[in-house]
Design a protein that fits this description.
The protein has about 210 residues and is α/β, with parallel strands linked by helices. Helix content is about 35%, strand content about 30%. Strands 3-2-1-4-5-7-6 form a seven-stranded mixed β-sheet. Strand 4, helix 4 and strand 5 form a beta-alpha-beta unit. The longest helix is centred in the C-terminal third of the chain and has 17 residues.
Length: about 210
């Protein structure tokens, strides 16, 4: 891991994920969480202030980025609920089957290398009747824009820590054995369309 990955990329991610347009999406998704929550790709903890403390008892956050998790630890200190942070990927989660009420992932499915395996793990740890909440950017609906996403994806991935432009989030979630209760999608304002098509959805395991 070079200087860019250790020192520049984590701060770039923290800045980008803290932009107002991103925070507005978090504010819509995060308060829906309840009970014991697994947050996948918790990063620097931008979601923490948006949890409804009257509905959440514990947040278990996983992320492979040590520098980002150090930022999350600082942000978690003021939270009125328990926050447990784990420096690891999510392709193998340190949790029992059916042990969490909510799985939350925001702007991280685009980056996870083994995303199908990771989604299978999220489904495994979710209790019957639990909810999977996601808010993600991904593949646009227009064929012309899709072609540009496919062309630029290899370069984008190298520059932005493995982030993909062209993952079809709805298809990934359904393919992992979740049933979508609802999903809405559209372009974020003041965001390049190539990276601005965002899906926000709630699903449960079938």
């Amino acid at each position: 891991m070079g200087f860019y990955d250790r020192h520049i990329l984590p701060r770039l991610i923290d800045w980008a994920c803290g932009m107002e347009v991103m925070q507005a999406q978090r504010q819509r998704a995060v308060p829906l969480a309840r009970g014991t929550v697994l947050e996948v790709g918790i990063g620097s903890g931008h979601n923490l202030p948006f949890y409804d403390a009257s509905r959440v008892q514990r947040v278990i956050g996983v992320d492979p980025g040590e520098t980002l998790l150090a930022m999350a630890r600082e942000r978690s200190a003021a939270m009125p609920f328990t926050v447990d942070l784990h420096a690891r990927g999510c392709e193998s989660l340190p949790l029992e089957n059916a042990s969490v009420d909510t799985v939350l992932v925001t702007f991280a499915l685009c980056t996870i290398p083994g995303v199908e395996t990771a989604l299978g793990e999220m489904r495994r740890v979710l209790r019957p009747g639990g909810q999977f909440i996601f808010c993600e950017h991904g593949r646009a609906p227009e064929p012309g824009l899709q072609r540009w996403q496919d062309r630029l994806d290899p370069l984008w991935k190298r520059c932005f820590g493995g982030c993909h432009l062209n993952r079809d989030m709805g298809a990934l979630v359904r393919g992992a054995g979740f049933t979508l209760e609802r999903m809405e999608a559209g372009y974020l304002p003041d965001t390049p369309r190539i990276a601005g098509y965002v899906s926000l959805g709630i699903a449960h395991a079938t």
